[in-house]
Amino acid sequence: MNLPSPGKHGIVLGPDPHHVGLARRWADRIARDTDSASFALITAVSELVTNAQRHTRSGDPGGTTTVVVERRPFAYVLTVTDNGPRPGPTIPVPRIEDRHEPLMVGGYGLRMLDALAAYWDWSGTAGGPLTVRALLERDSAPPGTVAP
After folding, report:
1. Residue 73 reports pLDDT greater than 50
2. What is the pTM of this model?
3. Count of alpha carbons within 13 Å of 9, Cβ hemisphere only?
4. How far is CA 92 from CA 14, 85, 89, in A?
5. What is the DSSP letter of 137?
């Protein structure tokens, strides 16, 4: 994906669950940072792409998920856009579920994003594509700068 800014990188993924691993490897190459900063970006990308594939039309045949990472001096801005909700009686939106069963499998993606991100939100229209945006701090200053 060609983007106008040299600090922005994007990828369009298909519905194949193996594309989550492709997204992780792509994010690792984009990060070019310390392991802890890379971990936050890679984990956030992995969880959001997984959510898009599991809960939206992005996981259906022909579906896509668009991931964009903008490298800023001390943070990454991550956006993940899906193809919108699957047909059904309700339109799901990203939310952190209250957990009453700590041993329950799955459902922790947004909770992990919430723990890793300095900020996150979502935007979209009812029945249309939805974008989750996250600000992930980088824990190291770029060469030649002084961390605050």
Report:
1. yes
2. 0.85
3. 15
4. 21, 7, 10
5. E
